[in-house]
Amino acid sequence: MTSATTAPELSYLENKVAMYRSQVALRRFEQRAYDLFLENYVKGTSHLSIGQEAIAAGVAAAMRPTDWTFATYRGHAHTLARGVPMTPVFAELMGRANGLMAGKGGSMHLTSVEHGVMGSYAIIGAHLPIACGAAWSAQYRGTDQVAVCFFGDGSVNIGAFHEALNFAAIWKLPVIFFCENNLWMEYTRTSDVTAVANPAADRASAYGLESIIVDGNDADAVFEVTSLAIARARAGEGPSMIEAKTYRHGGHSRADPGKYRPDEELAEWLLKDPIPLYRSRLVEMGVSEDELLLLESDVDAEVEAATNEAKAGEVPGEELLFQDVWADGSGSWRN
Amino acid sequence: MAQLTFREAIARGIAQEMRRDESVVFLGEDVGAAGGVFKGTVGLFEEFGPVRVRDTPISEQAILGAAMGAAMTGLRPVAEIMFADFFAVCWDIVANEIAKSRYMTNGQLTFPLVIRSGNGGGLRFGAQHSQSVENWAMMIPGLKVVVPSNAADVVGLMAASIRDDDPVIFLEAKALYSSKMDVPDGEIVDTLGSAKVLRSGTHATVVALGAMVPKALAAAEELASAGIECTVVDVRSLVPLDMTTILREVSATGRLFTVEENPRLCGWGGELASIVSEEAFYDLDGPIVRITTPHIPLPAADALEDLAIPSVERIVTTIEKSMNS
Questions:
Q1: How close, in Å, is residue A227 to chain B by CA atoms?
Q2: What is the DSSP code string of A276-287?
Q3: What is the pLDDT of residues B28-47, one digit of tens each?
Q4: What's the total number of domains in chain B?
Q5: Residue A257 CA to chain centroid, in angstroms?
Q6: Given B160, B183, B206, which residue is the final one in a domain?
Q7: What's the pLDDT score for residue A2?
Q8: CA-closest candidate to residue B10, choices B122, B116, B163, B83
Q9: What residues of chain A lie within 8 A of the CB of B96, using their CB?
Q10: Which residue does chain A place closest to B101, by CA atoms?
Q11: Where in chain A are the domains?
């Protein structure tokens, strides 16, 4: 049995404040990442999840440190929410040697095994069966670890999605498939290319699973529904699929201004921005404005310090080029 | 010493490793009570039970995804892809995920897994169940590619592949499944990346792989009676590639012939020819000649398939003609 790392018990309200801080940190990290892209510090591509932070924060809060996250190429938030520090993530985006993977993976492949972040996958749907494999390993070894696999609404029409759902169901694997439905599959409205209204939830019954839909802009709701699914998985009751309704405030990737979306739709979802909504909830519950301002300025300082540390990182050296193709650390394919 | 068929050797190799290591598990289509469609894993289900030997649906992406996820979290899975042609429906998991994730994560993840698959022609199955796909696998950085040619090597190379911490594509020539040989008793563990010299001659070096190895040996026998003495090298593993042995044997005879079942373009022999040209050019006494399946889809009819895949006769006449010109 693997036991969870013991964390100090937090009160009900402290947990909520922590979940708020997580959302603010994810938002401000990504806003800074966007600025760094405009300043040409971040090269290549990046996919921001601004507007979807309640999901990463809510799910991570429901997980134990020994559980596993499988993320997509839109995975900055899911990586950070598991406790990975900002500096190596910024540095990875900038292609520096102090990056999370020393610059060898980039924005789309963030991985931190020590935090249970078992990779970010950039081929749509590929990681659903891989998460099944981790869950199978937990089941086989008799641990109570669970795998949580995030994917977007665009993933539900690829074969790997369907293979993984059936596989997890027949083997009763401890895996939670978590669909972040932000309504847009890259540049196309998902409902225009999908046979059912709820792209993930409406498929659940085909695999003998319950249809679960949650407000993805409410971290508490996400936390609750995920906690139930994880408890089921730990108890040996098999997989769950959750579909969370949410919205990305920006475009698909860094090159996309997202102009294909109607202004009124964006405006409507900006009103449902999870962060101010959660902040108001905390104020109603008695958290002081001073405490929240302090928390927010603390996050700003963290972002600033991490940006500077990442920028100060070395450019990766040539020795990394051939390193770790193979398990012995080498890159040699012949003698 | 017991006489084993190639297919019995597969089960023996896997069983040997499953007995010594609880983390070794086996999954695939029809691999449980059915023992595999080629009967390559008969007895595993009976000995190790349904928890360690698991039947899967016809879902190749799920099979290999599960193997990958299990490998990165502490197991040593052996996964079966029934026909190597079916790699085409799960190549993302092989080429994009399994092969690259160790490098991309800067060594955070390790993938000790084996994907075994029935490879190649000779069984009149037609174009979608007969391909030799070793060149598909060889071109992807991050994959090891092992192709045994006889039952004894199957046991030892299977064991070595399972113990290896990297992903191994283990291709079993379907045409050899019924071939038999004496295999020593007891534990056998071979070494990946070691070619074997099966016959020594002074005139030409013939390098072959998988089902082409017995044909190359038969051809060498015939050529010897015509006065051409050939060295025959069994490559056994394309990655890692034992160029030390191959270069030594080519330099000794001054001639290189490759015998490849894969279609001609981008076959492994092209890579060998390139390396030998660069590193042993001045030891060559004549052109490097590749004997391959032509660049065509494989036909089903026995008469046509036999024309396509290198035959003993084609190997003999090609080498004779080249040596005498």
A1: 23
A2: HHHHHHHHHTT-
A3: 999 998 999 899 899 999 99
A4: 2
A5: 22
A6: B183
A7: 44
A8: B116
A9: 123, 126
A10: A119
A11: 12-97+123-213+220-261+297-303
